[in-house]
Automatic annotation (TrEMBL):
Family matches, as Pfam families: ABC_tran (PF00005)
Name of protein: ABC transporter domain-containing protein
Domain of life: Bacteria
Gene3D superfamilies given in the database record: P-loop containing nucleotide triphosphate hydrolases
UniProt domain ABC transporter: residue ranges: 46-213
GO molecular function: ATP binding; ATP hydrolysis activity
UniProt keyword list: ATP-binding, Nucleotide-binding
Organism: Pseudomonas syringae pv. avii
Length: 213
């Protein structure tokens, strides 16, 4: 089984049944802690090859991802579990096109993200990606119903019937006229999940999607 070192503190090993198990540097398997990153594909395929990501620090370069390989086929899902700081959010940001790799490549469908400029990346995120952030990132000036529809409208994919289904399944019917500041953490998280699904994205990325549920 091959391993990919993340943040110098643990390694992600090979996966079975959609799960990557966490191991420490001595190769001893231990229980995953707290943090969860979920990737789910619909009609696209994700391929991450040899991805390296470094950050500059006063002490010198910090390698967060070191040669990560990952393959996720169409209509499949994968959960990455590990301690805070192990590199999961960094991987999410790279796959979502919010940050750039230092080496390696990320291909989603037929598109290589490193070959897109910033404008193309923004359009690609708007039309192909659904994101659930750790901090929700709801728009404070919009009511719940408008937060839910926000990305779908930007992508030109707003479907009132689909949004009504999401509202029912997520139990948001009594909250539609509220603003984010009037919601509990769990309620905000459900709105964030609904917003990510509303545009029917080809790839859903969720960073600790059940942290407040």
């Amino acid at each position: 089984m091959s391993h990919h070192e993340l943040a110098g503190t643990l390694k992600f090993g090979g996966w079975a049944d959609g799960e990557i198990h966490v191991k420490n540097l001595r190769g001893q398997e231990r229980q995953p802690l707290f943090s969860l990153l979920v990737l789910q594909m619909s009609v696209l395929m994700l391929q991450v090859q040899g991805v390296v990501k470094n950050y500059a620090t006063p002490q010198g370069p910090l390698t967060v991802l070191a040669g990560v390989d990952l393959h996720l086929g169409e209509r499949s899902s994968l959960a990455l579990m590990g301690e805070s700081g192990s590199g999961k959010s960094t991987l999410l940001h790279l796959v979502a096109g919010l940050d750039r790799v230092d080496a390696g490549s990320i291909r989603i469908g037929e598109q290589r993200l490193d070959q897109l400029n910033e404008g193309q990346l923004a359009h690609w995120r708007r039309t192909q990606i659904g994101l659930v952030f750790q901090q929700f990132n709801l728009i404070g000036s919009l009511r719940v119903e408008d937060n839910l529809a926000f990305q779908a409208r930007l992508a030109g994919r707003f479907d009132p019937y689909w949004q009504a289904q999401l509202v029912e399944r997520l139990g948001l019917g009594d909250l539609l006229r509220r603003y984010p500041e009037q919601l509990s953490g769990g309620q905000q998280q459900r709105v964030a999940v609904g917003r990510a699904l509303a545009s029917r994205p080809g790839l859903l990325l969720a960073d600790e999607p059940t942290g407040n549920l």
